[in-house]
Amino acid sequence: MFSHLDDRNQPAMVDVASKDATPRTAHAQARVRLPQAVLAGLSGGELHGPKGPVFQTAIVAGTQAAKRTHELIPFCHPLGIEGCRIEIAVDAEGCAVIDCRVKVTHKTGVEMEALTGATVAALTIYDMCKAISQDMVICDVRLLAKTGGKSDVGATQGPRG
User: Fold this and answer.
1) Are strands 46-49 and 52-53 parallel, antiparallel or unpaired?
2) Catalytic one among 6, 99, 127, 140?
3) Could you say which of 3.20.20.140, 3.30.70.640, 3.30.565.40, 3.30.565.10 is the CATH number of the domain covering 22-147?
4) pTM
């Protein structure tokens, strides 16, 4: 049974009123395959494109998106996120790997916030580099870990700092 359907099979936000607020974390990841033309802009682990510092801008955009997830995805509860940490690094395969870790003390989890943060950061990288090449591929968006609530998935440290 889907949790966002009521007893009449109609869409409804999950009622969390009876739940206890507990610490919850989520760690999501997205990857952006960067073509050689974009990778040529890498210097010291940082990517600079025609629009400015790509990774720093993507971190800001992803953080903003995580905080506004409830405005983008129906039935997500508005949450006072207590921590959001986004890190971006280029791996040996030429992919920008985006890790988004979110934490909150609340009655509901932050998986969607972490996934939204990672995805919007990936979209921002694409947007900032598309003048160089549109051969980028956003892929492998996934939840790596979550803690709190009914079940834990994987292992996560939560946001640092």
Assistant:
1) antiparallel
2) 127
3) 3.30.70.640
4) 0.89
**What digits encode the pLDDT tens for the residues 39-76?**
998 887 788 888 889 999 999 999 999 999 999 998 89
Distance in angstroms between the alpha carbons of the first and the last residue of the chain: 38
127 catalytically annotated: yes
* 15 Cα distance to chain centroid: 24
Burial tier of 70 (Cβ tally within 10 Å: 0-12, 13-18, 19+)? middle
Residue 132 carries which DSSP code? T
Nearest residue to 158 (alpha-carbon basis) of 82, 103, 118, 107: 103
